[in-house]
Design goal:
It is elongated, with a radius of gyration of 24 Å. The chain has helices at about 325-335, 455-470; strands at about 1-5, 10, 15-20, 30-35, 40, 45-55, 65-70, 105-110, 120-125, 145, 150-155, 165, 175, 180, 185-190, 200-205, 225-230, 250-255, 265-275, 280-285, 290-295, 300-305, 315-325, 340-345, 355-360, 365-370, 380-385, 395-400, 410, 410-415, 420-425, 430-435. It is about 5% helix and about 35% strand. It is mainly β and about 475 residues long. The longest helix has 17 residues, at about 455-470. It contains two helices and 32 strands. It starts with a strand and ends in an 11-residue tail after the last helix. It folds into two domains: about 1-275, Jelly Rolls (Sandwich), CATH 2.60.120; about 280-470, Chondroitinase Ac, Chain A, domain 3, CATH 2.60.220.
Length: about 475
């Protein structure tokens, strides 16, 4: 995270939180961004929880905070905004930390009524689009308003349907008798891009009922806001954003508080999951240390055996590619020994399965073969959330070598139905990896692993569990929290 203007990590109720404002008597305007721009044009899902608490004084704490996506090239200094890109900070003075940032879209959670607000407790989607000469603002009403030294700030409300003033109390509740902390809240924001058949959409859910063991609203959940939207700027779509590298935007949070009326604003958990291919690269750690490749709501984990060393600092890249379940079956499983299997649909991926493709490079960036083992000693796992009817007897974990081929074999060892299910395997090397399931369970193994005695298999599974315990649960640890 890039933390700006006082945003910081803090401890609250024995947990680490992202603190956007601290409830002091001073004005604050902060931002916090994930450092790596995200491919958003093909859709995304994000989940976060927050709490606004410990107000400074009675009886009107503020201002609030926002989830932001942006590719800012400039800010409006007349409003008190500064910086750009990773360092962009919007204004205080009711600006919720994003006002004055160009080329941005903010979903604000506002708890203080300013002159441009219909009330002091609302959610709204704000953008003035990808015209780099225009700056975002928290203004919802017609007319011109003053923020900082700018007397001509106008509305950037996305559309008339992009504000909800009838939501449960977002922040502290105050009266003559004092204030009580705001309740913790959970939010899901989902962007679905337009297709040739339908418009895109942007949905904001506040405290929905979730599917069991997930951060996915149950079918039929009513969003607090649901508006048509196309995220990509064009002359015919001026409220879209101008993306970097054709597809990428920064994602994060903004916040502000007024003088003498502050409140502590904490983001307590956050997942961001794209619906398009994403990759992570890191140096392969020594044996016994798991390398986690986290893609928001799902992740891959790779652990070389004890004694493995990487003196050449070889890097490993894991590319995760969401793929439609039926298309994957028809193009990559049909006609193989795994034709009776289906890939597992991961939640928060736009209804897709995920294929992990693993490659390695030397210090000069040249692609090299990933380090291999003579036996199946490399522990591989994937952790995810799913509503698929998967249980241990039906689970499988496949590898195809080379990448993109249909030369599948099974590396499956175990499936743990925890809060976040974990599929584990053992292998000698890498290529394409995908978690699957079938009525008959695991298919033909890559080696003779499937032919070993049941007692030996139980020993392998037990050693995997022991490894997880000895590592403090680090073997494919929980995705969030």
């Amino acid at each position: 995270m890039q933390l700006n203007n006082g945003a910081r990590l803090a401890s609250y109720n024995s947990h680490i939180v992202l603190r956007m404002t601290d409830g002091s008597a001073a004005e604050e305007n902060t931002t916090a961004y994930f450092r790596i721009a995200q491919p958003v044009n093909q859709g995304f899902s994000t989940y976060f929880s927050f709490q606004m608490h410990q107000p400074t004084l009675c009886c009107a704490p503020g201002d609030g905070f926002a989830f932001i996506i942006q590719n800012s090239t400039a800010t409006d200094s007349s409003q008190g905004a500064s910086g750009h890109g990773l360092y962009a900070v919007g204004s205080e003075d009711g600006g919720v930390g994003y006002s004055g940032i160009n080329n941005s879209l903010a979903v604000e959670f506002d708890i203080l009524q300013d002159p441009w607000d219909p009330n002091g407790n609302h959610i709204a989607i704000q953008t003035c689009g990808g015209d780099l000469s225009l700056y975002n603002s928290p203004v919802h009403l017609p007319g011109t308003y003053t923020i900082g030294d700018n007397d001509d700030v106008t509305s950037c409300l996305l559309s008339q349907g992009a504000i909800n003033t009838d939501v449960s109390a977002l922040g502290p509740t105050c009266s003559e008798d004092g204030c009580t902390d705001g309740a913790p809240h959970q939010v899901v924001i989902e962007y679905t891009p337009p297709t040739s058949q339908q418009q895109g959409s942007l949905q904001v859910f506040l405290d929905p009922e979730f599917e069991p063991n997930s951060q996915v609203p149950v079918p039929g959940s009513v969003p607090a806001i649901n508006v048509p939207y196309n995220l990509v700027y064009s002359l015919s779509n001026p409220l879209g954003l101008a993306l970097s590298n054709t597809s990428q935007l920064l994602v994060g949070f903004t916040g502000s508080q007024p003088a003498e009326q502050g409140t502590t604003i904490d983001v307590m958990a956050w997942e961001f999951t794209t619906h398009s291919p994403t990759q992570i690269t890191q140096i392969i750690p020594p044996g016994g240390q798991e390398a986690d490749y986290s893609f928001g709501a799902h992740q891959a984990g790779i652990t070389y055996p004890q004694g493995f060393q990487n003196p050449g600092n070889i890097t490993m890249t894991v590319l995760e590619t969401p793929v439609n379940q039926q298309i994957f079956h028809d193009t990559r499983l049909a006609g193989t020994q795994f034709a009776n299997e289906n890939c597992i649909i991961y939640q928060q991926t736009g209804g897709n399965c995920v294929v992990y493709s693993v490659t390695c490079h030397d210090q000069n960036g040249n692609q090299v073969m990933c380090p291999t083992e003579e036996e199946d000693n490399i522990a591989i796992c994937t952790q995810f959330q799913t509503s698929e009817p998967v249980a241990s007897p039906q689970a499988d974990f496949l590898k195809a070598d080379p990448i993109g081929s249909n030369n599948w074999c099974s590396i499956f060892v175990s499936y743990d139905q925890n809060q976040d299910p974990v599929t584990t395997g053992k292998g000698r090397g890498f290529s394409d990896l995908v978690a699957t399931f079938s009525p008959t369970g695991p298919g033909p193994a890559c080696t003779d692993l499937r032919s070993i005695t049941r007692s030996m298999k139980r020993t392998i599974e037990r050693s995997t569990r022991i490894q997880r315990q000895q590592d403090g649960g680090s073997f494919c640890p929980p995705i969030m929290d």
